[in-house]
Amino acid sequence: MPASPTVRDTRPVLLTLTTTRAPATDLGYLLFKHPDKAQRFDTAAGPAFVFYPRADEQECTAALLLEVDPVALSRAHRGQDTGLGHYVNDGPYAAGSLLAVALSRVFKTAMNGRCEARPELAASPIPLRVHVPSAPCKGKDLPERLFGPLGWQVDARTIPLDPAFPEWGDAPYVDLRLTGEIRLADALRQLYVLLPVLDDAKHYWVGADEVDKLLRAGGDWLAAHPERDLISARYLKHRGAYVRTALERLTELEGGEVREEPAENRPLAAVRRETVLGVLRELGARRVLDLGCGGGALLRELVAEPTVTEIVGTDVSPRALAGVARWLERLPERTRERIAVRQSSLTYGDPSLAGFDAAVLMEVVEHVDPPRLPALERVVFDVARPAHVLVTTPNIEHNVRFPGLTGLRHPDHRFEWTRAQFRAWADAVADHRGYTVAFRPVGPDDPEVGPPTQLAVFSRKEA
């Protein structure tokens, strides 16, 4: 280990990255840090060191060690809302925001995914192991909730307050180990965002620029993460205006309705997915179609449902499906076996989609030109003919509750229905196609204008 300068009462914080992709020493090219050299970098919290405990053709491990001076750090931030007003705290001892900042400082080029020496390698998933021996964690199941949907196998073991006194219980830390096959740049960006989220604390002032940092680091994975609301809130220290801005921009990245306001302090898109999942559980659906899956937001939550054994997502957009495919590549093989995606139009029949327990069209029908709706009805209710069909669509009557909204909620909407119009359409479809239909609100049910989203649940009569 490299010698460090004399620093008063320093405390080391450690993270290691390991790959077994041969030649494993190419990890040095990706990180822009030569395996034969130990390097030092200055950060606001103290010096950071990069060195390689092992570097050979079969396996290579890069270690990032941050030496924190808690007294100097406390004095530097005196009077600020940083959680470091007194130096006796866990910031200098555990891998939270201090390590995340060091990660960005030391591996900035790698986080951007650039590597002129190995460009194909930088763009490809590689086998990776991440070890954080001491990660502050407020919530025992939180590591799995944060890293699991990103394709990591998560091993988070609680750390006892004192092994000699087991009756004292566990400390609010975990020994965190992540295993997966993922692009190095993606792994670094995820750690940069999620280490402070595990801790639910930051050692520095959070301003408006933190929204941009969050979007830069999480823009290609956070929009569809099932815990994006929690991640945004914790990353931005629960500052409401910043959290709302971040969620609106993430919704835009997801291709959703960017003008929607949060419902019950949560984005309407999240409430909508939660409602749909609840109905699928009620119906006992095990084989589910997501028709018009877009970037895969619902797919990510369906795959986390242990009772759902088969999932097929379809969309007409190759770009959307490419993003879903990248996510699928990061999933464990056993999980990946349960889910498939394919390019398909909802106005052209696909007999291979027949026989499923349920099909979901979440915010889809309003993107179809009205003359093409009969073709969609035939494809979904006659050709695929699942036991149940769930359809959500905006309630245009509720638009008056969105400040500044004029016209439709999304530029690609061909129409938006009132509650009466939606019911008339759904009743006619049910009568003509051999289904019954029931209606539910999604989001707060305003006594004057109804809910922001309306849901129809069709059930095949013979089912």
UniProtKB/TrEMBL annotation:
Annotated keywords: Magnesium, Metal-binding, Methyltransferase, RNA-binding, RNA-mediated gene silencing, S-adenosyl-L-methionine, Transferase
Record-linked Gene3D superfamilies: Hen1, N-terminal domain, Vaccinia Virus protein VP39
Catalyses which reaction(s): small RNA 3'-end nucleotide + S-adenosyl-L-methionine = small RNA 3'-end 2'-O-methylnucleotide + S-adenosyl-L-homocysteine + H(+)
A Pfam family recorded for this sequence: Methyltransf_12
Organism: Actinokineospora fastidiosa
Domain spans labelled Methyltransferase type: 289-379
Protein name in the entry: Small RNA 2'-O-methyltransferase
Cofactor(s) essential for the protein: Mg(2+)
